[in-house]
Amino acid sequence: MTSLPDATSCPCCGALLPPEERQAPPLCEACLAKIEREARPVLYTCRISRNEALDIVQTWWEDPLIASDLLTKAQVMECRLNDLPFWRLAAHIAGHVMGYRIESSDSSDHKVPMVVVLNNNFVWTGTASDTGGLGIFYLRNLIGKTISSDSSPQQAVTISLAEGIVEGMRALEYGMLKYSGVPHITAQEVRLRHLESGLIVYPFWIVRYTYAGRNYFAAVDGVTGDLVSGRAPGNVLRRIFALVVAMAATFLATVIGIFFLELLFHPEYLGPWGVVILFLFFFLLVFVIVKCLILVRDALARFRYGAEITCGEVDGGYRSPSEEAYPRVSEIAYISIGTGFCFMVISGSGFYRYGMWGAPLVMGIPALVAYIVPFIFMYNPDAGTASRQWVHEDYH
């Protein structure tokens, strides 16, 4: 049910309600949403005890990226069960999405038309209060024992129902288009039916602790026991090791490049099959260098952001690497990396051949800067948090 006290317009679509329907629970003629004056919050029952929540957080502390002495030196200041409010918006979406996907062949790319029929129930949940500091923006779980309650949630509702519905409608549309699986959408014709909203009160264990004079936290789902979000101090030795690995991988790739450059100018060293061996060595060289550069990318990200380890959708910090953490960067970054690496190889080859420091050093230092700087900015600590508008198919 959609609740909006003293409603004069539908909170779902904005259509003006007839005067006679402003007194009794009406049905909006525009979007068929039910309007109800009072909505009792649905309270999820907590299944995880305080000790279990602490054990879950301490298991996370054993992550190699986290400070190795955190288990012994962390001081837990608080472990409290918080009931957080969330708006829930459910709708049945029917219609179709039209578009195309691109398939590549040996000769060219061609468009393949796609038409996807939608006939599914979707649910959106969004926080009804300010929980940004905890990295909790939606509910990952909607399965559990629930009861209706007349009591107010522990944390005050600061986001109105009307705001929640606007955000939920936008998220439902986004989720519906993403669920269709059509890469390039050209047209769509869908209807949202049986739109219902309500308030969910969901339990989370919030653990706050200190380490080396700094404050950190972790949030545990009170129903499933999953670690939802958290901050923890990083492992200093791991960061130093990551920097050493990045420099070693760069040095290895540069040496391989210098070796190939020398063979390119002196193929006679390889004998009568020199050209063939050089050709095969080129592909091996490209493969090894690409692997080294990926290693450099991950190691530099760990070194730069590893002072604080985060999980979930907490802003900043470093989390286990994934491709989502490296969004597409401009071609200029790749050109800078490639140019810097090539000039490092050339300057190294000049030093190897002539034994002089001057010119190779003048060329090598700017090349190293042009090579390193794009790597430093490739990792985005806030990547992956764009899913804060959580939409999934209703499975219960």
Description of the molecule:
The chain is of the alpha+beta class. The chain has 3 domains: 1-38, no CATH class; 40-232, no CATH class; 237-376, no CATH class. 35% of the residues lie in helices and 28% in strands. The strands form 2 sheets. Strands 3, 4, 5, 6, 7, 8, 9, 10 and 11 form a 9-stranded mixed sheet that branches. A two-stranded parallel sheet has the order 1-2. Strand 4 and strand 5 form a beta hairpin. Helix 4 runs antiparallel to helix 5 (274-305), helix 4 (236-265) packs across helix 6 and helix 6 (331-354) packs antiparallel against helix 7 (358-376).
Draw up the topology in text.
Blueprint: E1 2-3, E2 35-36, E3 42-44, H1 50-60, H2 70-73, E4 75-104, E5 109-127, E6 146-148, H3 161-180, E7 184-211, E8 214-221, E9 227-233, H4 236-265, H5 274-305, E10 308-311, H6 331-354, H7 358-376, E11 390-393
Parallel strand pairs: 1-2, 3-7
Antiparallel strand pairs: 3-6, 4-5, 4-7, 5-11, 7-8, 8-9, 9-10
Properties at a glance:
alpha+beta; two-stranded parallel ribbon; 3 domains; 396 residues; single chain; 11 strands; nine-stranded mixed β-sheet; flat; disordered C terminus
